[in-house]
Amino acid sequence: MSIIAGVGWHIVGAACAASFYAPIEKVKRWSWETTWAVAGLFSWILLPIGVSLFLLPDFHGFYASMDPHLLLKVALFGAMWGVGNVSYGLTMRYLGMSMGIGIAIGVTLVVGTLIPPFLHGQAAMLFTTRSGQLTLAGVLVALIGVIIVSYAGHQKEIQLSG
Question: From CA 60, how far away is CA 93, in angstroms rounded?
Fold first, then answer.
């Protein structure tokens, strides 16, 4: 049952994350900064607090029982995630959808796959084991795919704007 609940909550979270972009089409005259600030306020602060208030029987007690160092780590990782989201938005603004998404996915792919082995002192395993070499090959194939799709999308954007 916990696996089904986990998948269900993941779906709810994904739907909430996807809904972040829904109002952006309606506020085209707003500056980019205002749009992201308002959307971020609702999706990153108000909605999570509201859901927590709804789901937790003792909201205050839940957070009061946590180690302050843990809450600090959560806040710092949340801030890093926010910086990543703003950076992602800037790639969309300045590079366009095709190039921006391609670069964001490419960076996320490489960083998310290769940094953990380096942080855990297992970087050599990427080069010395069969599974590590297959991981590196998979990253390379995925990056080639991201480059091809990004280039094709960029060419399509040029055709549509010209």
Answer: 39
